């Protein structure tokens, strides 16, 4: 396949995940001739193995947990039964409902040509695509490497003998296992560990570090750990898996031997210890695209690789592995490659949400690293946020990181719907909105976002009782009193 007049493609995109889809669609919208190559159905990790199935599973788990928790509100639900195959069908149905938007047909309607196959760079300007119809060569003016990342499997002796599940294979199960050891207490381990436990699976979560969600505020880690334990997850932090002994009679089952001498026997092992950039067999050497010591494609702030006219976007770069980051990369790369713009990406302080219950949401400067940087942290505990009280969910908090000029430069929220609350805070951080301005905006009552307003307005209120402001206010009051008493 070549561009209609036999010329090279303006943009050849390798990988049809979020980064590739956004790059291809944006470039086509600009009027470029675009070919997207993917070795599977377009949609990538987010649609097929990541966000969509995991959030669908979490939704089912939340329903089960809410039903069990009803008695606290005077609503008793007897005999909550989880139908594992039906839960997994719900997950697949959600995926199927979203898939058409990312399909080859939808892409063609948007002006993007699509080829199924594995792409390999042969020389500058030339890619081989190994697809169902054999190997075909494609020429390009600009190319984007958007091949994403794959689950890492640690080299633990015996682990491969139990054919561990990863997020690439979990969704092919037709029923829920009765017990699972989740290895890794990051975003995936915590989200899926909690979901499976709420759905009745006996979950042991093994994290080698000293806390869950190591990238988040330690106070958030503690709340998530407590929540997982309430849901029945057996959390083992500071515990490395030394060896796995496969059960000879049950495929997939085995016993994990931990560094502290403990052993855990389970039906299945789910590995969630991070994701490795997918660059094997891409032929990056042939065009001079360098990768770093972790295998990430090296990019500059404009997403240029070390090779002329080759760009990279999304999880394959060393940037945070989020769908919204991949999407932002995709549109940036399209503008830079096709239009010659000089747009930059900055992933520091990218908004992020871990969809455990409670959710953990953060943006900008970390609430745990602000101290000592001339910043201060304003905290509103949710036991004094009315919405949290009415919902019986007062364990969380809202924190705002404020610089010397009163601007909000970071924020964190832990609680139900924290991800939704983050929208306002992301805008505040991006636009340098001050605490005073936030306090001056009327927030509907009683919403979770009211936590932001009460944090900001309490802080403003406290400042009224200090220093020059306090003296001026007292003077004004005295003057008004005098004026009033004179009639
Ligand atoms: C369980 C889980 C839950 C997640 N939840 C969230 C969440 O809630 N929010 C969030 O923001 N992020 C979440 N993520 C992360 C998110 O899914 C990724 O950051 C995002 O999908 C990355 O997009 P990408 O386009 O860079 O790569 P991918 O989506 O991985 O796309 C890469 C594509 O390239 C194709 N490909 C690879 N090599 C070749 C080749 N040689 N030739 C042709 N095609 C190739 C692949 O088949 C794939 O389609 C989650 C991830 C997981 C695993
Ligand atoms: N809600 C979201 O946005 C969301 C959800 C899921 C995944 N993701 C993305 O996917 C990426 C990958 O997620 P992840 O959870 O696999 O990785 P992660 O890097 O977030 O966490 C991996 C955890 O595994 C631990 N670990 C590593 N090796 C181990 C071992 N041998 N034994 C025990 N523990 C071990 C690490 O200490 C770490 O805490 C995330 O970084 C995130 O960007 C995002």
Structure overview:
By secondary structure, the protein is of the alpha/beta class. Helix content is 33%, strand content 23%. Strands 1, 2, 3, 4, 5, 6 and 16 form a seven-stranded mixed β-sheet that branches. Helix 3 crosses helix 4 and helix 3 (51-69) packs across helix 6. The longest helix is centred in the N-terminal third of the chain and has 19 residues, at 51-69. The protein is globular, with a radius of gyration of 26 Å. The protein binds flavin-adenine dinucleotide and nicotinamide-adenine-dinucleotide (NAD). Nicotinamide-adenine-dinucleotide binds next to helix 6, strand 9 and strand 17.
* Low-confidence regions: none
- Please work out how many helical segments DSSP would assign: 14
Radius of gyration: 26 Å
Structural class: alpha/beta
Spatial gap, N to C terminus: 90 Å
Cofactor: FAD
Enzyme class: oxidoreductase
InterPro entries: FAD/NAD-bd_sf, FAD/NAD-binding_dom, FAD/NAD-linked_Rdtase_dimer_sf, Pyr_nuc-diS_OxRdtase, Pyr_nucl-diS_OxRdtase_dimer, Pyr_OxRdtase_I_AS
Protein name: Dihydrolipoyl dehydrogenase family protein
Task: List its traits.
487 residues; alpha/beta; binds nicotinamide-adenine-dinucleotide; 21 strands; five-stranded antiparallel sheet; 14 helices; binds flavin-adenine dinucleotide; seven-stranded mixed sheet
